[in-house]
Amino acid sequence: QVQLVESGGGLVKAGGSLRLSCAASGSIYSIRVLGWYRQAPGKQRGLVATMDNEGVTKYADSVKGRFSISRDNDKWTVSLQTTRLESEDSAVYYCYAATSFRGVQYDFWGQGTQVTVSS
């Protein structure tokens, strides 16, 4: 089991920035990927950005060049620096961890943090 706790959401004006952070605990040595997903009202949860243990990143096309993901592997934290926020970025942002145990992948989610971008 992995527990994920997010922080850093809030209300920001369009064009502004926010930094989201997530701390992982529990079976941290089983973690292979840490990252962020988001879900807006009436929409499915979708990828924002992830980073695996080798530092390979994936970004949603809509956030490339505006968002940056980073990890601290000593503290098992993952952060998302968001810039040039748009109203379409408003959503609940979920911290995500993909773990592997005996060849089986298990996914874990945080409780979510709200990001609201006002125009």
Give the SSE map.
Elements (H helix, E strand, L loop, with lengths): L1 E6 L2 E4 L4 E9 L4 E9 L6 E7 L4 E3 L7 E6 L4 E6 L8 E11 L2 E6 L3 E6 L1
Parallel strand pairs: 2-11
Antiparallel strand pairs: 1-3, 3-8, 4-5, 4-9, 5-6, 7-8, 9-10, 9-11
Provide structural commentary:
The protein is elongated. Helices cover about 0% and strands about 60% of the residues. It has about 120 residues and is an all-beta fold. Strands 2, 4, 5, 6, 9, 10 and 11 form a seven-stranded mixed β-sheet that branches. A four-stranded antiparallel β-sheet has the order 1-3-8-7, with no helix packed on it. It has no helices and eleven strands. The model has no long low-confidence stretch (mean pLDDT about 95). A hairpin with a 2-residue loop joins strand 9 and strand 10.
Q: How many angstroms separate the termini?
A: 39 Å
Indicate the proportion of strand residues: over 45%
| Coarse shape | elongated
Residue stretches low in confidence (pLDDT < 50, at least 5 long) are: none
Question: Total number of helical segments?
Answer: 0
What is the string of SSEs from the N terminus onward? EEEEEEEEEEE
Describe the main β-sheet briefly.
7 strands, mixed
**What's the average pLDDT?**
96
Proportion of residues in helical segments: under 10%
Number of strands: 11
Radius of gyration: 14 Å
- Structural class per helix/strand content? mainly beta
List keywords for this structure.
single chain; 119 residues; mainly beta; seven-stranded mixed beta sheet; four-stranded antiparallel beta sheet; 61% strand; elongated
